[in-house]
Specification:
Oligomer: single chain
Shape: flat
Largest sheet: 2 strands, antiparallel
Distance between the termini: 38 Å
Strand content: 5-15%
Number of helices: 3
Order of helices and strands: EEHHH
């Protein structure tokens, strides 16, 4: 783990959490031992949900698959909007900044400072 990566607060960088039944992979970092980026953490969690809803035991597999597809499609669109807003400086800067801020708020890619820039 390099110096720029922060350790997971739940497992303290070990990737595992002790339980009554022995060590299990940390649910916050998925065994990585480091804090995951928003996109990475969301995708890993979606895969975990998909894996847990296979086999017809819950009765909601089709609904879960549809929701996951919709979420992935929406996040992909937001990522494209954010990228285009950063690439193209044309147009009113207030609109571009507002669109980028909204997309980033949903994606959680960049930290947002609480103070206003004037």
């Amino acid at each position: 783990m390099d110096a720029t990566t922060e350790r997971c607060g739940s497992c303290q960088g070990g990737g595992e959490i002790g339980t009554d039944y022995g060590p299990v992979p940390c649910h916050d970092c998925f065994g990585e031992g480091r804090q995951l980026a928003s996109l990475e953490r969301t995708e890993w969690r979606l895969r975990d949900i998909e894996r847990n809803h296979r086999g017809g035991t819950h009765g909601c597999e089709a609904d879960v698959q549809w929701l996951i597809h919709e979420l992935r499609q929406s996040r992909e669109a937001l990522l494209e909007i954010l990228s285009r807003g950063q690439d193209e400086a044309a147009g009113p800067p207030e609109l571009s900044a507002a669109v980028q801020f909204a997309a980033n708020r949903a994606l959680g890619l960049y930290s947002v400072n609480d103070h206003k820039v004037e």
